[in-house]
Amino acid sequence: MRISSGLLVAAAVVGLQLPASVSAADEVLVWHDLLLDTYRLMGGCPCPLSRVGGMTSGAIFDAVNSIDGSYQPYLTSVPASPTASKEAAVAQAAHDVLVELFPSLQAEYDAQLIASLGAIVDGPEKTEGIQVGATVAAEMIAARQDDGWNNYQSYQYGNAPGEWRPTWPDFLPPCNSHWGTVTPWGIPSGEMFRPSPPPTLDDPIYTADFIETKALGKVNSVERNSDQYTNAWFWANDRDGSYKPVGHMIDITRIISQQYELSMVENARLFALASIAMADAAICAWDAKYLTDLDFWRPIQGIRLADQDGNPNTIKDGSWVPLGIGSPAFPAYISGHACFAASCASVIRNYFGTDDIAFTCTTDDPRLLPGVTTQSYNSLTEAVTANGRSRVFLGVHWQNDCDRGIEVGTQVGDYIFANYMQPAPSSVDPFETKFASTLSVSRIAPNPSRHSATVELVLPVDGRLDLGIYDPSGRRVYGFDPSERQAGSVSLEWNLVDMSRRQRVPAGVYFVKGQLVPTSGAAPVGPSEAQARLVVLP
C-alpha cells in the first residue's frame, strides 16, 4: 500500500502481527516488534518513520526510567515509586504514542495493550505504572506536536548537469524536501555535521564513482557478482511492505541486545539512543540533500546525461537502468541508508564499548536469490560498510554519497550517546546523608573486558569492604572476599567468573556495588554508585 509522504494519516487496517507470547516477554522488545510491523504496514519515506521511532522509543525509555531512575531522562521524568510496574509503564507509553500517530491502527494497539497488561498482576503497582506511561506519552506527543514534520514546502527543480530532478520510470516528486528543517532530537541543528559539497563533475572522485556504479549497478550487469547482488537487495528495504532502513537497524539492535541478554531497563535505553540518533540522522541527511548549494543527481541521471557533464572520462549510456529499477525520490548526496546505519551502529559501538560485535541478521526485502535469508558480520563497521556498498550495487548511489553518509551518521550517533541518557548522579538517601563520606567506584579497566577487569575504589575510612558484581536484574553473580581495608585507594581484580569461581559469566552488562563497614563500629558507608558499569564481551 502506497501512501503520501506525510505518513501520519489514516490507513486501511490490514492487520499487525502480534507476538505469540507476552507473559514472559520483555515489553520493550514486544513493542518494538510491533513498531516494525507498523513500518511494514504504513510504508512511505524513511524520515517520518524515524520520527515515529524517536517518539515511541523515547517515551518507552522515559517511562521505564521514571520508575528505575538509573539514567538521566531524555525528555521528562514523572514522579513514581520504585515499586511501580515498569512493564505496565512501557506498554501504556508505547500504546499511547502509536495510537496518536496511527489512529486507524488503534484496534491492533489496544489488543497488544490488553495482552501486555493482562500478564501483570492487578494492584497499585500496575495502576501506577499505567499512569506513568500515559503521562510520559502525553508529554512526548506535546513536545513533538509542532516540530515541523508537516511543514511541507514547494521545491524548485534544477536542470543543470549534476542537479537532481524526478527520475525514470515513475518520476515521483521530491519526498520530504523540508525534513532538514524539522526540530532535532538531540543535536543543536541539522547543519551541525553538514558535509562538504559533493565532488564536482570533473573531479577524479566523481569519475571513479561514475565508472563503478555504471558497471556494477546496472540492471543486467555482467560485472556484478552474486555476492554483490545479494548485498544489494539484502540492505535495500525500499519497498512498502518492508520495515525500511530504519526498521532494519532497529531489528539489528534487537538481535545484538538479545546476544548480550540486556535487561528491560537497558533495552529501553539502548533502543531510545539508537532511535533518537536515527531521527537526527534523518534531519542531517535531508539537510545535506536539499538545503545545500547542490542537490546532487542520481546515477540514472548522471549516466544518461553524461554527454552534458563536461567530463571526457564519463561515457553516456542513454538506456542505462539501475538494478533497483526506480531510484528514491530525493537527491543522492548524502546516502540516507548509510547515515541511518552508521548512526545506529555508533550508538551500539559506544554502548558496548567495542566495534567487534559479531551477529547474524535478516532482511525484509523479498528480492534475494533463492534460499538467501541472512547475512553474518564480524563487526559493526563491516555491516555499515556493506550497507553503504549495497547502494552502489543497486545502482541508486555513488560511493561518495555512502562514504559521507557514514561519516555524518557516525558523528550523530557519537554525539547522542555522549550527551543523552547518561547514568544519573548517585541518589542521596538519609543513610548517605548521615555519612557524608561514601564508598565509590572510581574506575573499572579495561571496560569492556573479555578476560579480566580491575575495579578501583576509594575508601573514605578504614573498614570491612564487601563488594559484589550484579547483573541487570539485581542478582549477585560474584562476590569479592570481604576483608578489612585501610582508607585510600583499593584495586580488586575480577576474572569474569561467577560465584563458583570456575564458570565464566555470560557476555552482558554488569554493575559493581558494595558496602564498607567502618572499623569504629559505626553504620555501614554506602552503598556505592549503582552505575559503576562493566560490559563483558563474548
UniProtKB/TrEMBL annotation:
SUPFAM superfamilies given in the database record: Acid phosphatase/Vanadium-dependent haloperoxidase
The answer to whether the entry has keyword rRNA-binding is no
Record protein name field:
Phosphatase PAP2 family protein
Recorded hits in PANTHER family, A to Z, give: PEROXIDASE-RELATED, PHOSPHATIDIC ACID PHOSPHATASE TYPE 2_HALOPEROXIDASE DOMAIN-CONTAINING PROTEIN
**What domain of life?**
Bacteria
Q: Which InterPro entries does the protein's record reference?
A: PAP2/HPO_sf (IPR036938), V-haloperoxidase (IPR052559)
Q: Mind telling me which CDD domains this protein's record contains? A: PAP2_haloperoxidase
Q: Quick one: signal sequence residues? A: 1-24
Give UniProt keywords alphabetically. Signal
